[in-house]
Amino acid sequence: MSAALTTTDYKQLTTAISGNMRKLKAGVPEVIAGFNAMGKAALAPGVLDAKTKELIALAIGVAARCDGCLGFHTQALARLGATREEVNEMLGVAVYMGGGPSLMYAANAVAAFDEALGAQAQ
Predict the structure, then answer these.
(1) Which among 15, 45, 51, 116 is most buried, taking Cβ atoms within 10 Å?
(2) Residue 90 · residue 72 · CB < 8 Å
(3) pLDDT score at 106
(4) Please, which residues have CB within 8 angstroms of residue 42's CB and are 6 or more apart in sequence?
């Protein structure tokens, strides 16, 4: 496992967020259903494949500095067979578009992807 600029355990974070989302869904089921439908539509097969769409989502997560986004989208990329080279190249574009703050989150995305790959191998 590589050193991260943060001590975030992305698997633990995504598990906690998922539990909190279940609670939120109980309070606002229509909102969560709408969000889930939007996500399903956005990731549906089309001209872009699922891996490309997840790379875009991770780039936006880096630019928005969203730890949960790093966790969920790196896990999806590991499942979809993304390579380190693909993730690194996308992170280069995210850094270019987001400057210094995106560079810091790109470094954290590397740690999240390493963690997701390790979990995938188990």
Answers:
(1) 116
(2) no
(3) 87
(4) 53
Give the CA count within 13 Å in the CB-facing half-sphere of 28: 8
Dihedral through CA 10, CA 66, CA 63, CA 84, nearest 10? Answer: 10
Q: What is the pTM of this model?
A: 0.80
Residue from 85, 89, 32, 29 nearest 56 by CA:
89
Residue that is written with structure tokens 């909102």 in the block: 31
- Rounded Cα distance between 73 and 70, Å, is 6
Look-up: residue for tokens 């270019």? 96
Topology adopted by domain 10-121: AhpD-like (1.20.1290)
pLDDT at residue 1 is higher than 50:
no
Q: 39-83: per-residue pLDDT in tens?
A: 999 999 899 999 999 999 999 999 888 999 999 999 999 999 999
